[in-house]
Amino acid sequence: LDLSEWAHARAEGGGGLLGWIGSLEAAYDLASDASRGFAARLLAFMGSVGLCEELCKAAPLVALARGPTVADRRTWLLYGIASGLGFGLSEAVAYAEGRYNGFSTGQQYAVRYVSCAGLHALLS
């Protein structure tokens, strides 16, 4: 039994965190369904994958907010950029390893790393 099946089974029984995980799983399934229209898939993708990515990138900022001292704007900005860069680099590594590791040119890797890291840092 994989995690998505487990979350989906728990989501049918109620709300809370498990219900939220189950609804994300359902939205991801909708986004992956090629028989659906573009608008439905776009919204489902933004509501599942996009939302989870942004929550992961916000985790260091939540830790900063709960810290013992009050941070200034520059610190918030640096934490956000660092979080986005780290997430973008990890995503680029995952794509490179899973899709074209050793089977592509250096240019493909450069484009993937620069675009993933830059985009996530900018969005954070």
Structure characteristics:
124 residues; mainly alpha
Topology:
Layout: H1 3-11, H2 16-32, H3 38-65, H4 73-99, H5 106-123
Helix pairs in contact: 1-2, 2-3, 3-4, 4-5
**Uncertain stretches:** none
Q: What's the end-to-end separation, in Å?
A: 34 Å
Instruction: Return the average pLDDT rounded to an integer.
Output: 79
Shape annotation? flat
The total count of helices amounts to 5
Give the ordered list of helices and strands. Answer: HHHHH
Count of distinct strands: 0
Q: How much β-strand is present in the residues? A: under 5%
Rounded to an integer, what's the Rg over CA atoms? 18 Å
Summing up helix and strand content along with how strands pair, one would put the structural category as mainly alpha
Bin the helical content. over 70%
The largest sheet, given as strand count, sense and whether it forms a barrel, is: none
Write up what this structure looks like.
The protein is mainly alpha-helical. It has helices spanning 3-11, 16-32, 38-65, 73-99, 106-123. Helix 1 packs across helix 2 (16-32) and helix 3 (38-65) crosses helix 4. The longest helix is centred in the middle third of the chain and has 28 residues, at 38-65. The protein is flat, with a radius of gyration of 18 Å.
